Amino acid sequence: MKSILFIVGVLWLFAAEILRVYFIMPFPGSQQMNSIDLAYFISTHIVLLRLIGYALISYPILEYYRGKAWFPKLIVVLLGIAYIAVFYLFNYRFQADKMFYKAQHQWFANATNDTTYKNSLVIGVVINGIAKAYPLQIIGYHHQIADSIGSVPILVTYCTVCRTGRVYSPEVNGKKETFRLVGMDHFNAMFEDSTTKSWWRQATGEAIAGPLKGQQLKELPCNQLTLAAWLMEYPNSLILQPDEKFKKQYAELKNYDKGTVKSKLEKRDSASWKPKSWVVGIIQHNKAKAYDWNTLTQQQVLNDEIDNEPIAIVLESDTASFHAFHTDFGNNVLRFQKYANNLLIDTTTHTIWNMAGECVEGPSKGARLQPVQCYQEFWHSWKTFHPNTMVYR
Q1: Which residues cross the membrane (predicted)?
Q2: What top-level class would CATH report for the domain 108-251?
Q3: FRET partner for 37 with CA separation of 20 to 30 A, picked from 158, 210, 339, 368?
């Protein structure tokens, strides 16, 4: 009986430590499971689960050391060493926030003093006329940057395995919340709030486990484009500068912008509609649609509609910066094609527009198109979190 208790207790302890991390990190097979509820249960009850395991093995160990046989004692010592190793690895090395740390020294520079390569991709945010840019190479490692623009707190997030950039208000139930990176679900980063310990999905801003399950963070508008394109529109923008402590980690993402990074989880599939091929995703009235990046690169302008609302997706000459706009304008539905020097021409009214959606030539000069929030991400991510998505062919 004591041997059975000992074996069960040992397996229980090893399973508790390993599975707590296995389900929420990219181990083989872990991210294909719908195991988030089980993962959350193990994580929130880990102390109790350990105590149960310790209780199961305490009596057998005591009996082994009372006996004269040396072999059971040796087994206890070896398994004890193995458990300590597993405990250390899965609590201090393999957890997400022990692999990806928050930036400790956060500072910004203007365009004159900025050190960022101008073709680098950034997430740009404008609030009340104040603009800031956050390079993917920086937020891609940290996964989140807690900041404020003016008096408005924001949470800039990025998941390199999904290629998803999102900006949220960090206020939860009227309180400014702080978050830590806790792991991932279906390859998408998850954050845990410090108050309720709920888990929040990065790609959607939804709480998927914990007391606040089902609640949604408020999303804030943002753009993904090159820093050069961003500064053309917002020359007074501030740009997040690298934290010198993490130079090595940033260097590992040097080629991430172009999709040629070495990591298999983050490297782009160049063919269309493969798991890690790039798409542009748009949601209108809860209806999602995906546009192949290769098609956008070839055509440069895609005129389409979602839920009977006409839109256009346009690609700048740098083949990296993109925008989307509502194209119902006055009594017309505008249809665009590329003109010259990063300009668009509407084939209906023959007016000229720039990449900011502003009319620069024609009767409507000075008018602006309403922007549409759009995202560039991996196809596997978009279809996972928008299973009913339409596809532009």
Answers
A1: 36-57, 69-90
A2: mainly beta
A3: 158
Q: What is the DSSP letter of 357?
A: S
What is the model's pLDDT at position 263? 93
Q: Which residue has the tokens 């940033």?
A: 250
**Residue range 278-392, CATH number:** 2.102.10.10
Distance CA 382, CA 273 (A): 11
- Report the C-alpha gap between 135 and 224 in whole angstroms: 9
Chain-centroid distance of CA 36 in Å reads 17
Q: What confidence score (pLDDT) does residue 253 get? A: 96
Is it true that 108-251 and 278-392 share their CATH fold?
yes
pLDDT band for position 67 (cuts 50, 70, 90)? confident
pTM score: 0.94
Query: How far is it, in rounded angstroms, from Cα 40 to Cα 217?
Result: 20
pLDDT recorded at residue 212 = 98
How is residue 227 annotated by DSSP?
A: H
Tell me what the pLDDT averaged over the chain comes to.
96
Q: Which residues contact 350 (CB under 8 A, 6 or more apart)?
A: 362
